[in-house]
Write a structure and sequence with these properties.
This protein has no helices and 7 strands. Helices cover 0% and strands 55% of the residues. The strands form 3 sheets. A 3-stranded antiparallel sheet has the order 1-5-3, with no helix packed on it. Strands 2-4 form a two-stranded antiparallel sheet. The chain has strands spanning 2-5, 12-14, 23-27, 32-34, 39-46, 53-60, 63-70. The protein is mostly beta strands.
Length: 71
């Protein structure tokens, strides 16, 4: 799970994420709107098609997160 915080003074909408390498978002369904000052938990699943290490860097609402997995 990854918690994203809207640190701004206005609501922000997360409409899509570019995912690859076997990572997929399972919850919540997008788009999702985060009111100012709120948080949202994003839940991911990792299901690689091949053996090996995977890394995915995301920039969500101005915050950087790194997902890693080993297949």
């Amino acid at each position: 799970d990854l918690t994203v915080r809207n640190t701004g003074t206005l609501g922000q909408t997360l409409s899509s994420l570019a995912l690859s390498g076997g990572f997929a978002l399972t919850s919540p369904r997008l788009p999702v709107t985060l009111p100012a000052g709120s948080t949202q938990i994003l839940t991911f699943v990792f299901n690689p098609g091949e053996a090996g290490d995977r890394t995915l860097t995301l920039n969500i609402l101005g915050q950087t997160a790194v997902l890693t997995g080993t297949g």
